[in-house]
Amino acid sequence: MTEPFTSTPDLPQGEREPTWLERNRLALLALVPLLLLAGLATSFRYVTLYRPNEFTQPQKASGPGLNFHENFMSVGFGTQPRQYARNVTITLRSLKAGPEYQGEKAARGATLWVTELQFQAKPDVPLEGCHLALVDEQGEVYGDQSGKTGESSDVQRHCVPLDTPGPTFDFTGELREPSGAARPESWTVRRTVALPEGKRPRFVRVSWRPPHYGLIPLK
User: Fold this and answer.
1) Whole-structure pTM over 0.90, yes or no?
2) What is the rounded distance in angstroms from the CA atom of residue 93 to the CA atom of residue 189?
3) Which element (helix H / strand E) includes 91?
4) Residues near 84 by beta carbon (within 8 Å), at least 6 away in sequence
5) 43, 47, 54, 91 - which has most CB atoms within 10 Å?
């Protein structure tokens, strides 16, 4: 048994079949405000969530010295956040590769780089808790907490003198003045970073809190 043959009725003379765009123009027009709302939602997440919590705003030096500045809010529990300013001059004194530095060694397949930086800031500027990293020629970032064995007894972890760190924030977010001697206005810090063998650093990166970070180029 064969199926009955059907055909599309002929259009009246002078008329044509509407195109796909013509048939769906109302649905396509309805998509425009939806796409705008989706774009606004994405921009909101980028501006309010991603940018403040990621390192997205570099301050790049043209030479070995960088005048770093950022405004930031205190973070803690039980107090109203307050805004503070961080102003510090960071100068790259040297960057050398070696097998070992004061008890720290590079893990297998890595090279240890020793960074010497000079910091200059007023004694009341909060500077504890900085992060040091090296950026290679491909833009990869390597921090100073991995790729090493052993543990140094006096490598400074916070970019401030161990005995005179200056003001610090407590767990409530309050800035506390040091109980001992004031921090000097200039001091030297040495930190180590391990890079995979064959990788060479292009920048020294110093940061405290997102989104700002400093980049000092190598000579």
Assistant:
1) no
2) 10
3) strand 83-98
4) 71, 72, 73, 74, 126, 175
5) 91
Residue (of 93, 86, 84, 81) closest to 59 by Cα position: 86
Which tokens in the block code for residue 138? Answer: 């491909």
> What are the φ and ψ backbone dihedral angles of 196, each rounded to 5 degrees?
-60, 145
d(C-alpha 211, C-alpha 107), whole Å: 31
pLDDT in tens for each of the 219 residues of the chain?
A: 455 544 555 555 556 677 776 677 777 677 777 667 666 544 434 343 444 579 999 999 999 999 999 999 988 776 788 899 999 999 999 999 988 888 889 999 999 999 999 999 999 999 988 999 999 999 999 998 888 887 665 555 578 998 899 998 888 888 999 888 999 999 999 999 999 999 999 999 999 999 999 999 997
Q: What six digits make up the tokens of 179?
A: 């109980």
How far separated are the first and last CA of the chain, in Å rounded? 88
